Amino acid sequence: MSKRGASPPPSTEGTLIKRARSNSPARNQIAISSGNDERQKGLIRSVKRTSNLEAPIISLSGSHSAEILSCRFDPTGQNVAACSADRSVSLWRTYPPNTNYGLLSSHHKAPILDLQWSLFSPLLYTVSADQMLSFTDVTTGQRTRKIRAHRGIINALDRTMAGGAGTELVATASDDGTVRVWEGGEDGSKNSIAVFELGCPATSVAWSADGQNLYIGGLDNEIHVYDLRKGEQVYALTGHTDTPTSLALSPNGSYLLSPSFSSHTIIHDVRPFSPSPTRIHRVLQGAPAGFENTLLKGAWSKDDGGQRVAVGGADRMVCVWDVDSGRVLYKLPGHRGTVTCVDFHPKEPIILTGSKDGTMLLGELDPGV
């Protein structure tokens, strides 16, 4: 007598099967195909998304015919502004459909070297090689104020709302060897409220967190710290062997990022009582400055409180470091020219880069820990 064989598994055809609910975050599936047949595509990777961008990498191009010299998110993170050597400013939406809703091409007569969004009003501040400081209302696209701020090329600007007076202050750094402070907003005076003589061309400027000090990078390879109330230099930050190209203050106001022509990026400790006599917190390498002497602009991440910094390079890549360890986290490709400027989104792990190829890229990063 033979044993009965195992019963065949029940057929699932036409049977309703209940699946357990998945609480895992949404993922995008990236497919690749060697041919044109859609049916031959195979899944190669599942990517966890970390932002509200339409795709992990988005190109913003078509507005500029020359190199982009500065690009920044507005304080809300909803908009992007970029200025170029073609004397124009472009305005973009950060999120889909990423429209280029504005192109301001008549406000300056020379390359626009830097820009900043106002912290409290719908204004955009721009400085140019035509020695002018311009105030533009981004809701109308009209220029509201125009100041002949310097007698030389204006390389950089920064703004602050700190200081207790409730007035936005704008600082401009120029090749004429001076840094001047102006009243922001639409109703400010055309006369500067403070002037600091550096003695050499000023390439970069940044405000301290309390709005009482100005950090000024010069052609003498030093970063000069001026007290706004005293009107004099209080100390200097050394360590560079070549000219600092830009300055960026950390979100907590304790550290200052300064790339330079020497391809070394230094993070300075600007707290009142620094444990290091040299005030050098980290020396970072990985972003080559190249031979073009471009004023490369670095930035701090904001969504994680400043755990990462980024600087573009002449190798057409963006280098992102971990501040605590000094370790390189990313080398981000995508551009066809020197990456001149970088900015981080104020609320999400998104990096914005601009290049000499006239394009910008929005890239999604892993969230900070």
From TrEMBL:
The keyword Ligase does not apply. Residues 22-35 have a biased composition (Polar residues). One of its GO terms (molecular function) is RNA binding. Pfam families: ANAPC4_WD40 (PF12894), WD40 (PF00400). GO terms for cellular component: catalytic step 2 spliceosome. Keywords: Repeat, WD repeat. WD repeats lie at residues 61-92, 147-183, 203-236, 306-331, 332-369. PROSITE patterns: WD_REPEATS_2 (PS50082), WD_REPEATS_REGION (PS50294). Residues 1-39 are annotated as: Disordered. This is WD40-repeat-containing domain protein.
